[in-house]
Amino acid sequence: MQTSLVTVPYASVEPDACVASTMRYTVKPPSVDSPFFDTGAVERRQRRCDCSHPSCRGRLIIIRSRMPMRSRTAALLCGLLVACSPRGEREPQRAQAARPLTVSTTERGPLLDFDADSAGGAAHITHLVPEGDGDGIAFTFADSQQHVAAALGLIDRQRVHARLAWPDSVAVIWWPKLHQLAFSSAADSNTSYLIADAHAPELQVARDSGGLPLEQSMAAPQAAHPAARARASAYIDSVHLQLGGRGEHSLLRYFVADVVMAPGDSLAAFYAVATDSSGARFNPSWYVLDPRSGQIAPVDRLVGHVDAMPMQVATWDSVTHFFYVKERTLYEVHVAR
């Protein structure tokens, strides 16, 4: 009969006695549910100890037991599957799993400090539309004190200050091609306007009554994948020690308020906030998530009201570049894997 040696810790045995130089152990039979041992597949055995002091009772013992045939067969098959897997297939998977997400955040500049003037304290950013290469970012803003609902601004990577491109009533913004910015007015939806070179020293706005091809740049964002939202929620619960979304020792509850998917769903940015019993929201934070591996990297956070880092003013321009606004300043995040 084939046998195998198994080392069992003291916690699984009960000493009957330790008299003089002889110690006898009675071993509990393994559980019926154990996949590695047959029920009662153990035996008594005598073992000598070097002393009669109670500390000798903590030693490990070696027992003999039979491993059932089905367990040996399953273990053998698992070993063969691992051993026979091509090395070239295993190593890239291992390297990919070990590669963490890294983020680098760059401040692009204040959005409401224009060349000639600055917007008032009531002004706030409402939408971002990045250029294809990320060099130019068009944005809309509102100012209740100045009775402005949707003015158009433009910030350039090569410029310190943003520029005011249109005073109000902007409806839709899109980039027909690189360096060309187009928009339509809410006052006249049949008329489009074109800035031929958004990076020129002086912005020249031309009216286009023929109608430019309209892209849905300001359409609703792509819905988040359920798995991405579930992973983000589990992460926030673990960070803030919440069981099932509820903290035991805090008056604030943190949750994922929004998930912004990158093109192709290869990456996601999610926005987490805290709320109190009144429903007010505080302490916003941005994170980046890889839906395939589940890895998460923090981007930015703010202690205070959510208006200073709004959830709705954030977008991707490509698979690896994410933009958001914090305290009326534009930030660009580059994600590497």
In short:
The protein has 337 residues and is mainly beta. It has 3 helices and 23 strands.
Please explain how this structure is put together.
The chain has 337 residues and is mainly beta. It has 3 domains: 4-84, no CATH class; 115-208; 222-336, no CATH class. Helix content is 12%, strand content 42%. It has helices at 69-84, 87-98, 226-239, and strands at residues 4-8, 13-19, 22-27, 45-48, 61-65, 102-110, 124-130, 136-143, 148-156, 163-166, 170-177, 180-185, 188-195, 205-208, 242-243, 246-247, 253-261, 268-275, 281-289, 296-301, 314-316, 321-326, 329-336. It has a 4-stranded antiparallel sheet, with no helix packed on it. Strands 7-8-9-10 form a 4-stranded antiparallel sheet, with no helix packed on it.
Secondary-structure blueprint of this entry?
Blueprint: E1 4-8, E2 13-19, E3 22-27, E4 45-48, E5 61-65, H1 69-84, H2 87-98, E6 102-110, E7 124-130, E8 136-143, E9 148-156, E10 163-166, E11 170-177, E12 180-185, E13 188-195, E14 205-208, H3 226-239, E15 242-243, E16 246-247, E17 253-261, E18 268-275, E19 281-289, E20 296-301, E21 314-316, E22 321-326, E23 329-336
Antiparallel strand pairs: 1-5, 2-3, 3-4, 6-23, 7-8, 8-9, 9-10, 11-12, 12-13, 13-14, 15-16, 17-18, 18-19, 19-20, 21-22, 22-23
